[in-house]
Amino acid sequence: MATTETLFPDRSDFEYDYETLCTTGVILAVIMFVAGILIALSKKFTNCVKPSSNSNSSATPVPKTEVPPQTV
User: Fold this and answer.
1) d(C-alpha 35, C-alpha 41), whole Å
2) At 10, is the pLDDT very low, low, confident or very high (cuts 50, 70, 90)?
């Protein structure tokens, strides 16, 4: 019968490549940071853009309804 040592060899020799891990982490952090800034700025600028003259300006605006406060 096979023992656990023959089925699962010792992996204590395994070492991480810390330089690659650090480099990959920094690159991913920079990408996510820039993506977050771009998303935040795109939402800010899309609210400031005026609608084009080709849009249907004769449509009636949708009335806003107020939500009554809930009692607990």
Assistant:
1) 10
2) low
Distance (Å, whole) CA 37 – CA 50:
22
Q: What is the pLDDT of residues 18-29, one digit of tens each?
A: 999 999 999 999
Give residue 57's identity as a one-letter amino acid code: S
Q: Which positions ≥6 away from 57 have C-beta within 8 Å?
A: 51
* Nearest CA among 50, 51, 33, 30 for reference residue 41: 33
DSSP 4-69: HHHHS---TT----HHHHHHHHHHHHHHHHHHHHHHHHHHHHHHHSPPPTTS-TTSPPPPP-PPPP
